[in-house]
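Section 5: illustrative case.
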């Protein structure tokens, strides 16, 4: 599974900037939602190439896939639920998403509608990312 549609959806949700900006939580970010860490070499005021930031995105995406595999019963999930878990980890990190214990439990048991309810009830949905979380919930609710 290459997840090309998922990658494009994440890029749309994240938006793109070739210079450092502050995200909705006031954290330094670049490219497609890459949270800048102490080990990054990005410099404020510098424009970076699309190629370099695409590579950063792919590294972040692969970390999100690995994180989703660690915090869910990944192999048991429906493909669309895997995508939702990956996007949640992309945004929240594996540690952050792992705190959504009820949601993850429902996903692991194939109760995708219940998992969507848990996401909708989260502060992440209510205070930060209503549209994005709603879109993820629609995906979960569409699984038959």
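Designed sequence:
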């Amino acid at each position: 599974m290459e997840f090309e549609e998922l990658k494009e959806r994440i890029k749309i949700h994240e938006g793109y900037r070739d210079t450092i900006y502050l995200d909705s939580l006031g954290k330094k970010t670049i490219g497609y939602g890459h949270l800048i860490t102490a080990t990054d070499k990005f410099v404020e005021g510098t424009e970076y190439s699309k190629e370099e930031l695409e590579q950063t995105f792919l590294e972040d995406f692969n970390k999100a896939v690995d994180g989703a595999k660690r915090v869910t019963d990944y192999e048991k999930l429906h493909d669309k639920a895997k995508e939702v878990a990956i996007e949640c980890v992309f945004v929240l990190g594996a540690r952050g998403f792992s705190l959504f214990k009820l949601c993850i439990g429902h996903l692991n048991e194939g109760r995708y509608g219940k998992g969507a309810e848990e996401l909708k009830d989260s502060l992440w949905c209510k205070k930060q990312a209503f549209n994005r979380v709603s879109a993820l919930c629609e995906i979960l609710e569409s699984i038959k």
